[in-house]
């Protein structure tokens, strides 16, 4: 594994599989009364959030705390960032505080790369979502969730549906799922497919009904209206009718097919409430799995000695507090 996790493309198939198997070991911790390991005791992890977030921030916080790291939450609102401090000065401050890892979410695509590569700090940088670019730990938790339900992802068909244009989740998933051998189809209206998508190595379709029966996984995306500066579709009703997942469409899925959504979801727009709450939906599991996957990432980036899985297993069996 590299020092930073900036893009899903940073991960080889071996890296990704190591994270998934480590996450599987760590996941069992969630079922224990004491959900804590000493693996990262004495290490400091900073959550640096320049954009609103609920589940990603608390997921990283829970992951770091379950590994006994010290966690500092730093959000742009209410900090000197709102007084105009630059990313560089923030990085120097974090460095001076001795951060071992910085988990960064930023509205600007590329901000975590700048933080990692400008030479301002020695910490590991983990991209927790940058603009419309990437969100590698979301892709990892999605792959982990699929893997737990379907086994090996080789040849599995994954449909990613909706606002692909603004989705860092879609981009990171497209990269990681291909690394893991899955076949990805992006389904969206032409206005919500990014320029250059033909170079992503995925299939595209405008026809959700044609893609659903062939899919092993259907991942719905939120329509990111806060990032839209123009009209990408005529009306919400029209969007839902063509690209929303409702009970009728769900009935065309194969028995084993799972339905996913990274959250936050807009019920009634991209997904109806009956689908979101159905047996096929693994949306709540994605949240649980997110903590295990982020524990695995933090452990492997910060503490993991080779062989990391063996190390994790040792900590799990011997090192409990
Ligand atoms: C996503 C994000 O922030 O990129 N959510 C998440 O991290 N769970 C997707 C979204 O905002 O729609």
UniProtKB/TrEMBL annotation:
GO MF term set: amino acid binding; aspartate carbamoyltransferase activity
Class in the EC hierarchy, top level: transferase
InterPro entries: Asp/Orn_carbamoyltranf_P-bd, Asp/Orn_carbamoylTrfase, Asp/Orn_carbamoylTrfase_sf, Asp_carbamoyltransf, Asp_carbamoyltransf_Asp/Orn-bd
PROSITE patterns: CARBAMOYLTRANSFERASE
GO-annotated biological processes: 'de novo' pyrimidine nucleobase biosynthetic process; 'de novo' UMP biosynthetic process; amino acid metabolic process
Domain Aspartate/ornithine carbamoyltransferase carbamoyl-P binding: 3-147
Reactions listed under catalytic activity: carbamoyl phosphate + L-aspartate = N-carbamoyl-L-aspartate + phosphate + H(+)
Keywords from the named record: Pyrimidine biosynthesis, Transferase
Binding-site residues, carbamoyl phosphate: 55-56, 105, 135, 138, 263-264
Residues annotated to bind L-aspartate: 83, 168, 222
Keyword Heme among UniProt keywords: no
Keyword tRNA processing: no
Enzyme Commission (EC) number: 2.1.3.2
Pathway named in the protein's UniProt entry: Pyrimidine metabolism; UMP biosynthesis via de novo pathway; (S)-dihydroorotate from bicarbonate: step 2/3
Described purpose of this protein according to its UniProt entry: Catalyzes the condensation of carbamoyl phosphate and aspartate to form carbamoyl aspartate and inorganic phosphate, the committed step in the de novo pyrimidine nucleotide biosynthesis pathway.
Family in the record: Belongs to the aspartate/ornithine carbamoyltransferase superfamily. ATCase family.
Quaternary structure and partners: Heterododecamer (2C3:3R2) of six catalytic PyrB chains organized as two trimers (C3), and six regulatory PyrI chains organized as three dimers (R2).
Protein name according to UniProt: Aspartate carbamoyltransferase
């Amino acid at each position: 594994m590299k020092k930073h996790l900036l893009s899903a493309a940073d991960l080889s198939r071996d890296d990704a599989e190591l994270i998934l198997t480590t996450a599987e070991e760590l996941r069992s911790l969630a079922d224990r009364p004491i959900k804590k390991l000493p693996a990262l005791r004495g290490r400091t992890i900073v959550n640096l959030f320049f954009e609103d977030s609920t589940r990603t921030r608390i997921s990283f916080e829970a992951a770091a705390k379950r590994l006994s790291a010290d966690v500092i939450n730093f959000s742009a609102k209410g900090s000197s960032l709102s007084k105009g401090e630059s990313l560089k000065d923030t990085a120097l401050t974090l460095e001076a505080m001795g951060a071992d890892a910085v988990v960064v979410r930023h509205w600007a695509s590329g901000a975590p790369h700048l933080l990692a590569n400008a030479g301002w700090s020695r910490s590991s940088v983990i991209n927790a979502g940058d603009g419309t670019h990437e969100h590698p730990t979301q892709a990892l938790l999605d792959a982990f969730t699929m893997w737990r339900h379907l086994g090996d992802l080789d040849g599995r068909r994954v449909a990613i549906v909706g606002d692909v244009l603004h989705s860092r989740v879609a981009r990171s998933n497209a990269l990681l799922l291909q690394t893991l051998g899955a076949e990805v189809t992006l389904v969206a209206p032409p206005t919500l497919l990014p320029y250059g998508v033909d170079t992503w190595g995925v299939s595209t379709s405008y026809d959700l009904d044609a893609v659903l029966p062939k899919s092993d996984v259907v991942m719905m995306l939120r329509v990111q209206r806060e990032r839209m500066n123009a009209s990408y579709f005529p009306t919400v009703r029209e969007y839902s009718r063509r690209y929303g997942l409702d009970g009728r469409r769900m009935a065309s899925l194969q028995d084993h097919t799972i339905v996913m959504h990274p959250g936050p979801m807009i019920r009634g727009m991209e997904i109806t409430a009956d689908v979101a709450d159905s047996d096929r939906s693994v949306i709540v599991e994605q949240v649980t799995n997110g903590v295990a996957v982020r524990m695995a990432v933090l452990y492997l980036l910060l503490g993991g000695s080779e062989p990391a899985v063996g190390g994790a297993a040792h900590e799990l069996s011997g090192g409990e507090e």
